[in-house]
């Protein structure tokens, strides 16, 4: 393996310095934005622009949303469990499970909050917590 390949020829002329400084560099001096003010008031830290929000409850509060989630998750689960148990379901039962799934999904989509032109921050594509 004494032959030099193309990679060795490419990197032999590079000056690669892999030494790291012992101490971190000091951050650049940052001046407060309020230096141009005409008053002699001391500069204070402003409060954060966000507010702490507690976690949402695990179970939905409205009965309709809870029933819709049961339909979205329960109808396919019923079909999967019946298939795994080798139980033959009649066509009306399968059609009913499919209709329950579709109706529940449509209901949940309709319950999403509207973010349209009527909102003052529209068209905002930021995250909603």
Cα-based radius of gyration, to the nearest Å: 31 Å
Overall helicity: 25-40%
Tell me the β content.
under 5%
**How far apart, in Å, are the first and last alpha carbons?**
59 Å
Poorly predicted runs are none
Mean pLDDT: 78
Structural class determined from secondary elements = mainly alpha
Q: How many β-strand stretches?
A: 0
Polypeptide structure, described:
The structure is a single chain. It contains 3 helices and no strands. With 129 residues, it is mainly α. The protein is 37% helix and 0% strand. It has a domain at 63-110. It has helices at residues 6-11, 63-84, 91-110.
What attributes does this structure have?
mainly alpha, 3 helices, single chain, 129 residues
Quick recap:
By secondary structure, the chain is mainly alpha-helical.
List the helices and strands and how they pair.
Blueprint: H1 6-11, H2 63-84, H3 91-110
Helix pairs in contact: 2-3
